[in-house]
Amino acid sequence: MEAERTRPRPSGSANGTGTLGKAIDVLELVAETDEPIRFTEILRRCDQPRGTLHRQLSNLVEEGLLVVNRDHSYSLGVRLLKFASKAWANNEFRVIAEPHLRRLHELTGETVHMGVLRGLEVIYLDKVESRQAVRMYSQIGNASPVFCTGVGKAALSCLSKETVEEMLPRIAFRRFTEHTLVDPATFAKAIDRARSEGVAYDREEHEIGIRCVAAPIHTADRSFVAGISVTAPAYRAGEETIAGWVDLVREAAAAIMDDMRNRLGPRV
Amino acid sequence: MEAERTRPRPSGSANGTGTLGKAIDVLELVAETDEPIRFTEILRRCDQPRGTLHRQLSNLVEEGLLVVNRDHSYSLGVRLLKFASKAWANNEFRVIAEPHLRRLHELTGETVHMGVLRGLEVIYLDKVESRQAVRMYSQIGNASPVFCTGVGKAALSCLSKETVEEMLPRIAFRRFTEHTLVDPATFAKAIDRARSEGVAYDREEHEIGIRCVAAPIHTADRSFVAGISVTAPAYRAGEETIAGWVDLVREAAAAIMDDMRNRLGPRV
DNA sequence: AATCATCGTTCCGATATTTGGAACGTTATT
DNA sequence: AATAACGTTCCAAATATCGGAACGATGATT
């Protein structure tokens, strides 16, 4: 069970340990709130002494990770953008996958995503779409639940039945649409099926009118577990259409994993 | 000089204070290296004891800000993307400026940027362009020098002559092209001119073949200092063309500052 | 305009974490 | 196989954090 040791803790809040961990927990708390948040409000949500919280916030501001607004509310600092820009540009998996994502987009004409598993969330690493109707950055970096996204289910299908079983009770199955799978057992069955078929689906489970097909990608040692998907509005993605994408997505995933083995060396 | 107190320290490396500051310095060091970097290499660059560095790295990995690769090299973690995604989406100034940037793009047909001053750097907050030839994320979050970018010079023109004077010795004037201003005195004159004219230029100072016109935007208290710009390849941006953009950029900047006053309230 | 309540900041002894040198395994190289 | 370089662990000493309480600022209410 060595691999478990450094696994990121569940995406739930406030279990950071050490000085850094506590500070990042505060940062996360500000991030989760999608608008400027004031001192007292933060104080209420993280149970810490006033003095302590005040110093932590000051340190975060000093580092440029937070900014204080005129009304003493806190927002995320632009320095985070700089870090992320580097994290994105230098991510080896993303660089390797990129041409394959582009090809998949050309073959299907639809939006293609790549998302990596982190704890109980999927974080989108890349996106290829034709029309720039939706804003850039609209998806990259976004964190979505594993249980109602194609990429999330595909990623989980990389893990063993037992590992998934252990995750289930920590997942907060929340109903997003009438099609969302909210029963852990049903969900587990869907993962089993994805594992044997090599593809996972999202039929309007996260958002009404949006469907997708996804396939898993991972390193041999499962230290990197992710998924790629083709997403389209439901009216363009009937069952027959979706079925036609399955092989394309699977092949793209296989090609990416091939490249990963060749360029990064086989892992364990 | 109260305003100086919490100003982000110069973008140079390794002057973080406190436990958090030191950890973020290490993170920055990894970020600056554009490829995976190994323990010993980090050790050489930050003069810290082995044991200390080892623990700091472990903590950063534990928090998901770094990842360790199979060969013990370190890369930035995807958790940074999640933070940045929120920082971008929720940035009030960006949200306010966005429609104006779009309009400016429509009026000129060229790429429009918005960048904010942070220490001695400009960090790009937004970008609007028609063709998606260049990858998304290609610019956002990017940190560029103040002294050879239109946005950087525009931003500096918001500051007093004295403040700029104090910054000069800390700026590492590096020659990017034959047109780069590498003499502090000449550069200071350019800023003075930008201050009186309300626009700054970049005539292939950062990159051969790229020119731009930029205008400053800022809050009354200068806690937010930024610039917007229209950028184009030199063959499409002759002197007459650029001159035609000046008023458009200035007007867009004025409109953004109007909106800022209305929506955020006048600051100081 | 004055009062009161809420909010944010500062202070300092107690506490827990970090620090840093050295010794110990582990992996690559000759 | 021997050697060197690298990464990890350990623990007493140093130091930053912790956290309660007092203080000052802000702004809402009468």
What would you note in describing this structure?
The structure is a homodimer of 268-residue chains. With 268 residues, chain A is of the alpha+beta class. Chain A folds into 2 domains: 2-78, Orthogonal Bundle (Arc Repressor Mutant, subunit A); 91-264, GAF domain (Beta-Lactamase, 2-Layer Sandwich). Chain A contains 9 helices and 9 strands. The first copy, chain A, has helices spanning 18-32, 39-45, 50-62, 79-89, 92-108, 150-156, 161-167, 184-197, 239-264, and strands spanning 37-38, 66-68, 73-76, 111-118, 121-128, 143-145, 200-203, 210-218, 225-233. In chain A, the strands form 2 sheets. In chain A, strands 6-5-4-9-8-7 form a 6-stranded antiparallel sheet, sandwiched between helices. In chain A, strands 1-3-2 form a 3-stranded antiparallel sheet. Chain A starts with 17 loop residues before the first helix and ends with a helix. Residues 1-13 of chain A have low confidence and may be disordered. At the A-B interface, α1, α3, α4 and β5 of A face α1, α3, α4 and β5 of B. The first copy, chain A, binds a DNA duplex (30 and 30 nucleotides) through α1 and α3.
